[in-house]
Amino acid sequence: MKKLLLFLCIMLSLTSAFAQGSSEKNADETIVLKMGDNVPDRKNGLGLVIETINTEFEQTYPNVTITTESYNDQPWQEKVRIYATANQLPDVFRYWSFSTLLTPLVEAGMIEELDYEVYSQYEFLPGALEGNMIDGKLYGIPTSSDLWVIYYNKSLFEKAGVEIPTSWDDIMESADAFNDMGIIPMVTDGKDGWPLCELFDNMAQRINGDFTYVAKAQEREMKYTDESFVKTADYIQELVKAGVFQENLTTSDYGDARNAFGQERAAMYMMGSWEMGLANDTNFSENFKENLDVMPFPVVEGGKGKATDTLGWYGGNIVISSNSKIKDVANNYVEKIASDFGQKCWDLQAAFPPVKVQPLETDTHVAKQLLSIAANATTMSGTPGLDRLDNVFKEDHQELMRQLCSLIIDSEEFTTKLDASAQRAYDER
Amino acid sequence: MSNDTNLIYKDNLKERRKKNISKTILMIVLVFIALLQLFPLVWAFSYSIKTSGDLFGPELLSFPKNPQWVNYKTAFVDGKILKYLSNTLSIIIPSVIFGTILPFSLAYATTRMEWKLKPLVWTVVIAGLTVPIHTTLLPNFIWFNKIGLLDSHLGLIICYIAFSMSFNSIIFSGLLSGIPKSMEESAFLEGAPYRVILPSIIAPMAVTGFSTVAIQTFLNHWNEFIMANTYLSTESKRTLPFSLILFDGQYSSNYAVQFACMVLVALPPLILYFAFSSKIMTGVTAGAVKG
Amino acid sequence: MQSQFKDKKVIATLVLPGIIIMLIAIAAPIIISLGLSFVKWTGFGKMKPIGFDNYLRIAKDPIFWKSISNVFILIFVTVFFQNTIAFILAMYLSNIGKKLSNIFRTIYFIPATLSLVVVTKLWVNIFNPSYGLLNKILAQIGLESLQHAWLGNTSTALGSVIWIIIWQGFGWALLFYYSGIVTVPDELREAAKVDGANKFTLYTRIIIPYIMPVIQAIIIIDVTSSLKQMEMIYLSTAGGPGDTTQFLALYLYQRAFKYSEYGYGNAISVIFVILAFTLTILIRKTFAKRLESL
């Protein structure tokens, strides 16, 4: 019997040797910089920019190898939470500065503080670094400045004989014209929920004229059951009922929405400025790219908000894990991002960077439009509403938006539940 | 011909006609279900050789004049099919081997031998059947990290074996309980020890169980993705189903390539299945049926 | 009784490797999980002990109850519909000659060999409202009015998800029944025929009792796999729209990993394990009256 046991032991150790044999063994002098982000497409847009920077970094530091791990937003957040629990965060990673996501990690002492003096010498836009400061300490640098806008396809508007809308009421009226032609008027990523929350914040501002209402509701200075929020929820449901969005809005994901628009199945695409890379995405036809344009989030007739009031924030922050054993390398890398990322982004027209950029002759039409939207902005919202309280509130907000948009709950139930969740989050602080 | 025989003849004819009709209906139903199982696969294949733009056409099923075989090349190279396939195999082979041997030994000891803790161990085994993988994800992540099993194939192998222990032991126990005790008793008389009796006398009697259990374990773990997704982070260690999900992100705007990758991932078990289908057909359930 | 049957060394060698692996990968996490169900914890940072609060919260959580009811709907559908259809088909297949039945069985089992990820992706695409197969078929046969966002509509999402589960699981049930039915000894059938049994009584009196162990095995598999159903929904609707397709295993995963309510997620999984264990025992008890083995 001992022999059998021995045999089993040998087999097990053989298996483990076999299993481990496939992992890379690093030569002594090679340093591996582990990196993670939420940009899985490495051949276009942002992913391409990151890959270019990584290659350059490896050329400057030949003893460093960068390994990357990329997921879509939601799986990436789940993965980071698991890594955090096991104290296994990658050396450098891209995460969100919002209190729901970065703050808990900072509070648990998992994020390395960055030297504000060093990073403030790069040309970040005003407020860009400040958004990543917690108790006066800098914890990450932003890689994009995000504006909430609507991309549209001019040729589909012409085909349907519809004027470019200036208000949501125009959009609602034109929904039938598009639907009759088998074209979806507007798509967005409803499965992940957060785009619907942006819609809510932005729509509320268009109705009540003030971005700070959301902040006030969260600070409990007013309530989510306020009349203007109820109206907003009603208005969004009216849009859904009028057939403005894709039929499977709350179960179709980012890729679905983006493809429907890129393959000219949808006339409008509500998303952030980081999608400016659509204008040179190799997956889509020339015809699409020629007809691509972008407009600010429209107004609501009779509402108090202007089209120049912009829902915008800084996002996609690069942070260093305080558990990293190669913090100096990590810091060099982050500095490289701080100095090069913005311009590279702009050169490739991949995303709207958080640094000052010079408009170029070669800028795509969409890029020019976005620059003008940013330049003409009369007010800016700052951090989106769903990201200011805690994580449970964030998930509640997204879930409630999905239910609202699936017409499962009405505006009254929606605002009551949202208010209850905000109250709970506030109480637990 | 008398009236009587005529009547009988007519009756037979009626019955035969009735039988024919019901046979045709039956055939139609069977073929319809077969189509239901097959058509989606053919459809997926047809999409995999189109361009992404073609997908939105109105036709049900069409094969393009210029099949885009390049989609397969992209999927094969960028999806790192070979690498992930070899990873999957290096996990699945030990899992299947130990996932059958260990339950067999356990089932033998619990069905045929006499010991005090037997009922307790057997309850643990039954309880194991009911534990959801998802409950174990985070605790295991924390504690695998402490004992160095995280991000290793060994960690996954241990989980896969653990999660096949219960079901497989139950199947073996059903088979083993039917064997008369005299089998071992006569062997004992000849002085044969257990390490001879088990592989040479008992195991052959449970051979159907081995194929059932091995095939089931293989199919289950071939498909497993949530544990692989949670425990593995190094890119070079990932497994096949997991790669499909990553690939989706990478090629989120190229549906046709996604379809090609899907076909490639589906292919290896399909090939195995067709190669061994007759054996699988009998082997897959034989153990359970007798159990 | 031979002393060899009580040889402690042999028993230890046979039992320990398997049990140790189960302890490492299943029992240990369950115990950790039980402990963590009494705290409020985001997965990192400080833990706050809160006694039975998580359990009290479960009682009042409508999504939890929704996910339980969905699990029971799924169990009901698989146990009754899938099994009945699989049984009837198996019955016919055992009567149409070996060659034909082989062909059909081979085809019917194909979906079961496919990876869950592939199956899910495939059906998500089939159900897609803009380029999916199903809506195209409806358009071709003039039923445009039935076109749907199958997974996106509250009234069809659950049905569509269950359909995917059955599409893949059906082959297993069929195969089990078929193998069961063909093992019924011919003498038993003959004897029944001599006694004047018609087809119906042949099946209810002879064949079904004979294959009881198979039925039990299938039902236990159906129940436990319905309870554990997660990956497919995670990859298709993620529980939506709303909580229409929320299932227990997915819900506990989401609470732990999406909401970062790790303690609460663990409390749900403790309840889950208790529920699954009770159901399994119940099924075994019900069947135990009919058979001694297993």
Verbal overview:
Chain A has 429 residues and is an alpha/beta fold. Chain A has 2 domains: 31-145 and 313-376, D-Maltodextrin-Binding Protein, domain 2 (3-Layer(aba) Sandwich); 148-311 and 384-428, D-Maltodextrin-Binding Protein, domain 2. Helix content of chain A is 46%, strand content 14%. In chain A, the strands form 4 sheets. In chain A, strands 6, 7, 8, 9 and 11 form a 5-stranded mixed sheet that branches. A 4-stranded mixed sheet of chain A has the order 2-1-3-12. In chain A, 52% of the residues are buried. Residues 1-27 of chain A have low confidence and may be disordered. Chain B has 2 domains: 3-48; 71-290, MetI-like fold, CATH 1.10.3720. Chain B is 78% helix and 0% strand. Chain B has helices spanning 3-48, 70-78, 81-112, 118-130, 133-146, 153-177, 182-189, 194-205, 207-222, 226-231, 240-250, 255-275, 277-290. The longest helix of chain B is centred in the N-terminal third of the chain and has 46 residues, at 3-48. The model of chain B has no long low-confidence stretch (mean pLDDT 83). Chain C has 13 helices and 2 strands; from the N terminus they run αββαααααααααααα. In chain C, strands 1-2 form a two-stranded antiparallel ribbon. The two termini of chain C are 22 Å apart.
Task: Summarize the SSE layout with pairings.
The complex is a heterotrimer of chains A (429), B (291) and C (294).
Chain A: H1 2-21, E1 31-37, H2 45-60, E2 64-70, H3 73-85, E3 92-95, H4 102-107, H5 116-119, E4 133-134, E5 137-138, E6 144-153, H6 154-160, H7 168-180, E7 184-187, H8 194-208, H9 212-218, H10 227-241, H11 254-262, E8 266-272, H12 286-291, E9 292-296, E10 309-310, E11 312-315, E12 317-320, H13 327-347, H14 365-376, E13 379-380, H15 391-405, H16 411-428
Parallel strand pairs in A: 1-2, 1-3, 7-8, 10-13
Antiparallel strand pairs in A: 3-12, 4-5, 6-8, 6-9, 6-11
Helix pairs in contact in A: 2-13, 8-10, 8-15, 10-16, 15-16
Chain B: H1 3-48, H2 70-78, H3 81-112, H4 118-130, H5 133-146, H6 153-177, H7 182-189, H8 194-205, H9 207-222, H10 226-231, H11 240-250, H12 255-275, H13 277-290
Helix pairs in contact in B: 1-12, 2-12, 3-6, 3-9, 4-6, 6-9, 9-13, 11-12
Chain C: H1 8-36, E1 39-40, E2 48-49, H2 53-59, H3 62-93, H4 98-113, H5 116-127, H6 133-140, H7 157-183, H8 186-194, H9 199-210, H10 212-228, H11 231-235, H12 248-257, H13 262-288
Antiparallel strand pairs in C: 1-2
Helix pairs in contact in C: 1-13, 2-13, 3-7, 3-10, 4-7, 10-13, 12-13
